[in-house]
UniProtKB/TrEMBL annotation:
The keyword Cytoplasm applies. It comes from Candidatus Roizmanbacteria bacterium RIFCSPHIGHO2_01_FULL_39_8. Residues 2-168 form the Era-type G domain. Residues 57-60 are annotated as: G3. One of its GO terms (molecular function) is ribosomal small subunit binding. This is GTPase Era. Belongs to the TRAFAC class TrmE-Era-EngA-EngB-Septin-like GTPase superfamily. Era GTPase family.
């Protein structure tokens, strides 16, 4: 029986969370085209007849973490690296130029003394490629796979290699405990997961800087007698003018955000959902929730 932990690491937006979701076969981590969509490591359990794997999706490493939030997110990724892992998947996006940020990730990957796999993601995109800039990595990392996480292309041989590199062992305590859950996420509860789904909609629907001024909090989940799941949640933002943008003219934006989130929560839970969603100004949420 093969069993172990696999760390996914790479720059922001290379497709780490998309990859983990597709391997697991359901959404465990939110995704968006914006950098550092993932804010903390997410552990998810994969099982098949070959064994069990805990995949650890990490936030993309920012080259220059300018603000408090980005610094703390980078620190969380570095902490995850220090966890006992068995295999490292280093993911790159060949459609992006290699830059100082990539150099930072390469530096971190070099220091991890575990079997490594280089995964070139987004091979469904052919028009623009900087693949030659990454070729030197093949000399350092013996296993290279080209995939499309989004389109589920060439994922099988990669999973086979991961199993090959994992040790033969019986499941650890953490794994045994995870196997008793009916949901594959190991380290976050349902309130946090629903908050993540709400945060994803902010990342997908709001302009460039706004997602970075926000977080989402779920205060209450209650199942009512009529079978409807009642959820009370808040989007926190740092300033009043962002709050106004999140609410939109005549409340149109928050309505749209709420309805999009509600539909997905309903899909994820298989229940009818009533979502009570508000926007609040809290200039200190980053310190409160991310230190
Ligand atoms: N064309 C294409 N797009 C992809 C592929 N994989 C991911 N994407 C897109 O790339 C963007 C970023 O994907 P994520 O999975 O959120 O990336 P990430 O590495 O987890 O990003 P962070 O959490 O911010 O570090 C999203 O818009 C995805 O839809 C792929 O194989 N092909
Ligand atoms: Mg991510």
């Amino acid at each position: 029986m093969k069993s172990g932990k696999v760390l996914i690491i790479g720059r922001p937006s290379v497709g780490k969370s998309t990859f983990v979701n597709n391997i697991i076969g359901q959404k465990v981590a939110i995704t968006s085209p914006k950098a550092q969509t993932t804010r903390f490591p997410i552990k998810a359990l994969y099982q098949d007849e070959r064994g069990e794997i805990i995949f650890i999706d990490t936030p993309g490493i920012f080259g220059q973490a300018k603000d408090f939030l980005a610094k703390h997110i980078n620190e969380r990724t570095l902490q995850a690296i220090h966890e006992e892992v068995d295999v490292v998947v280093y993911m790159i996006d060949h459609t992006k130029r290699r830059n100082f940020e990539e150099a930072k990730v390469i530096g971190i990957v070099r220091k991890i003394n575990k079997p490594k796999i280089l995964v070139v993601n987004k091979v469904d995109v052919k028009e623009e490629t900087y693949l030659p800039q990454y070729k030197f990595l093949e000399e350092e990392i013996p296993h290279v796979f080209e995939i499309s996480a989004l389109q589920n292309m060439h994922m099988k041989p990669l999973l086979t290699k991961i199993f090959e590199l994992l040790p033969e062992r019986t499941a650890s305590e953490e794994m045994a405990e995870a196997k008793t859950h009916d949901y594959p996420i190991l380290n976050i509860d349902s309130k946090t997961f629903i908050a993540e789904l709400i945060r994803e909609k902010v990342f997908l629907m709001m302009g460039e800087e706004i997602p970075y001024t926000t977080t989402a909090i779920v205060d209450e989940i209650k199942e009512r007698k009529n079978g409807i799941m009642f959820i009370k949640a808040r989007i926190l933002t740092t300033e009043l003018h962002y709050k106004k943008m999140l609410i939109g003219e005549g409340g149109r934006k928050i309505k749209e955000l709420g309805s999009y989130a509600r539909k997905e929560i309903a899909l994820a839970t298989g229940k009818k959902v009533y979502l009570d969603l508000k926007v609040e100004v809290d200039p200190h949420w980053q310190e409160v929730y991310y230190s």
